[in-house]
Specification:
Distance between the termini: 40 Å
Number of domains: 1
CATH topology: Lipocalin
Structural class: alpha+beta
Number of strands: 14
Strand order of the largest sheet: 8-7-4-3-2-1-13-12-11-10-9
Helix content: 10-25%
Order of helices and strands: HHEEEEEEEEEEHEEEHEHH
């Protein structure tokens, strides 16, 4: 029988003197090291074109910079939640969120458009692994995947391949593809961490058949700086965290249904994030629940 990567990794752990608990603690340390204040360099460029369409126009290469605060929202033995807050001068934008769950067996896999398929895996398939869930700015789903953290030769990294919606940098300028197949590597470094991506831009039809248009390289560099530089983001989160906890809790009740998820793109001409971003921090949970329910089609 062919050995899985997880099986071989567990075998390595047993002969190298690591216990499973020690390995789990090292994993959690790596994940939480992504918290703090960071200068970020975002880099994206299309690489190998597959489509033979002579009229195809590639996305322009991008190189952008930013400052971001990553707040540790939840820290429990089997779950770590990190909220990212983008700082533009004195303005704060609630950015993406990443949740990490140990040996998770329940997944919402992106299919296409605004649809995610619910899937379960056997416990043996995720032994020793961490699921990373990535959420939109409004805490609706983006993508998720499971893999083992690897700590070897002084390196600490996690790599997974999964389907995702178009990123914000693309969906405002592109409509010729509907799935981004992402290979994500998160690697902790001496200066911070790196998000290394190898992506395929895919057209998926209603029968689930895929056609690759082109490939893309992404390389985002997070350089740790003093936490004081992100003070305005820390103050923003202290003021708004209760509102967003209500939003997360509502979404969690939606995910707990264990059914395929289909979302409205807009309600009354507005996207979900536009409505939630306009709410007062003291808005009741009943009101945020109602807003989110209006976007859930099934």
């Amino acid at each position: 029988m062919k050995k899985t990567i997880a099986t071989m990794l567990l075998a390595f752990i047993s002969v190298s003197g690591f216990t499973q608990d020690n390995k789990k603690q090292e994993d959690a340390k790596a994940i939480k090291s992504m918290c703090g204040c960071y200068e970020i360099e975002f880099n994206f460029a299309e690489t190998f074109r597959v489509t033979k369409d002579e009229n195809y126009k590639p996305s322009p290469s991008k190189r952008q910079f930013g400052l971001e605060w990553a707040e540790l929202v939840e820290d429990s033995p089997n779950k770590i939640v990190i909220q990212h807050l983008l700082i533009i001068d004195t303005m704060i934008i609630k950015h993406w969120r990443q949740d990490w769950e140990f040996e998770n067996t329940k997944f919402y896999q992106f299919y296409k458009d605004k649809t995610w398929k619910f899937q379960t895996l056997p416990a043996t398939a995720v032994k020793g692994q961490w699921t990373q869930r990535v959420f939109q700015v409004d805490d609706s789903p983006r993508y998720e995947g499971t893999a083992s953290w690897v700590h070897v030769d002084g390196r600490h990294f996690w790599t997974d391949k999964t389907d995702a919606p178009l990123p914000r940098r693309e969906h405002t300028i592109r409509s010729d593809y509907n799935v981004l197949n992402r290979t994500n590597t998160h690697e902790i470094t001496s200066f911070g961490w790196i998000h290394d991506q190898n992506n395929a831009k895919i057209v998926r039809d209603d029968a689930g058949k895929d056609k690759v248009l082109t490939y893309e390289k992404g390389y985002d560099i997070y350089t740790k700086v003093d936490d004081s530089r992100c003070k305005v983001a820390q103050q923003f989160w202290a003021k708004n965290k209760n509102l967003w906890k209500n939003v997360r809790d509502k979404w969690q009740s939606v995910y707990a249904r264990g059914k395929d998820l289909n979302l409205q793109a807009k309600v009354d001409g507005k996207q979900l994030y536009e409505i939630l971003f306009d709410l007062d921090p003291t808005t009741s949970k009943a009101e945020t629940d109602k807003v989110i329910d209006s976007f859930v089609k099934s």
